[in-house]
# Entry
Amino acid sequence: MFYRWWNRYRTEGKPGLEEKPKGRPRSIFVDDPVKIKIVKLRKRYGWGPSKIAGHLSHKGFCIDHNKVYHVICDADLNHPITESTRTWGTKRFQREYCNSLWQADFKLCSDDYWMISYQDDHSRFITGSVKIYSPTGENAILLLERAVKRYGVPEQILTDQGTQFKPARGGTSEFELHCQE
# Structure
């Protein structure tokens, strides 16, 4: 630390010992006509810095969105949002009672086996799960029968549109026929 100050004193003299501002120098030189255009666009449309910079680039002006932001702040046109934004996905959708809905899906595992699982929508309890080599409707039916014997019949079963559950060319699949019984 001493040598840094000593070298600054030797190269710059006494002014070299004064504290210097840290970071990159802030230079936001923007021509007055461009500043006026930025302010007009902000007031008229309420656009943000990126949109204003993009609009001006289409008009032939080359200006960075950071410079646009500083011009907006200098003109006292920046009004940050004070209230918190609404968050999505905080409400958990689930059925009111156990066995009112089971969800079923196949998932490819890392060892090239497929896992089929049935999950109760209310409790998130896995009523049946097995790893199999081929994801067929027959395997889904066999696991469903085993889960129903152990935990009872669900009112509904929710599946994706996979060919194990829905036929690719219309009609009714083996799985749908078994569920209707």
